[in-house]
Specification:
Elements lengths: L16 E4 L5 E6 L7 E7 L6 E7 L5 E3 L8 E6 L2 E6 L8 E8 L3 E11 L4 H35 L5 H4 L5 H25 L11
Parallel strand pairs: 1-9
Antiparallel strand pairs: 2-7, 3-4, 3-8, 4-5, 6-7, 8-9
Length: about 210
């Protein structure tokens, strides 16, 4: 196991970014610029903290050592023709960070800094929910408009505008009975007047 005293890495210009979804496989690579056999490795830095060595190996040997709890089943390092690779299998949000390729000589040379951004799974259901809500809003609005129009129409047709002036509407049979009763009373009054006039008396106008 190799122990080095490392200091936080500060980049003069923003490194390139790689955006991945959870479950994707991501591979980084760099070229050994030392030109001589030596130790090489991959490092990860989170939020400007001290870089942590993921894995290291001697460039002329196939044996790889993993450090700081990183597992070979998740992060695989290998060399092919002076090209140094780091393959991350099925990334998740915890894999987000800045990755460096390091060569060990008299001091450590960091090259090929790359920012890995793993998007959270919560973004997908959030987009789906927003889409459903947006699609449902016009339907809800239409239902409210139809309900208001129906209630307004029912209010207008359920009460006559002359209801307050005319009083309660009576039953047709009651109206017919009232009309017959009025006619009967009128006939009785006419007969009573005829009886009061004596048919045997002749009335004449005198001067």
């Amino acid at each position: 196991m190799i122990n080095y005293s490392l200091t936080p890495v500060v980049s003069a210009s923003p490194p390139p970014s790689v955006v991945a979804q959870p479950g994707d496989n991501v591979t980084f690579h760099c070229t050994d610029v030392t030109g001589a056999p030596g130790h090489v490795g991959w490092f990860k830095q989170d939020n400007g903290s001290e870089p942590l060595c993921i894995a290291s190996m001697y460039s002329s040997e196939p044996t790889v050592q993993h450090h700081n709890g990183f597992q070979p089943s998740h992060m695989e390092m290998f060399i092919s023709h002076r090209n140094i690779f780091l393959k991350i299998t099925e990334v998740d949000e915890a894999d987000s960070g800045v990755y460096f390729c390091g060569m060990f000589d008299k001091y450590i040379i960091f090259t090929n800094a790359t920012v890995l951004k793993v998007q959270g799974m919560y973004l997908i259901p959030l987009v789906v929910i927003l889409g459903v809500v947006t699609a449902a809003l016009p339907i809800v609005f239409l239902i409210l408009v139809l309900k208001i129009r129906r209630d307004t129409k029912r209010h207008n047709t359920g009460r006559s505008p002359f209801h307050d002036n005319m009083g309660p509407i009576q039953d047709p049979d009651t109206l017919n009975y009232a009309a017959l009763n009025f006619t009967s009373k009128k006939r009785k009054m006419e007969r009573r007047r005829e009886k009061e006039l004596d048919p045997h008396v002749v009335y004449a106008a005198t001067r």
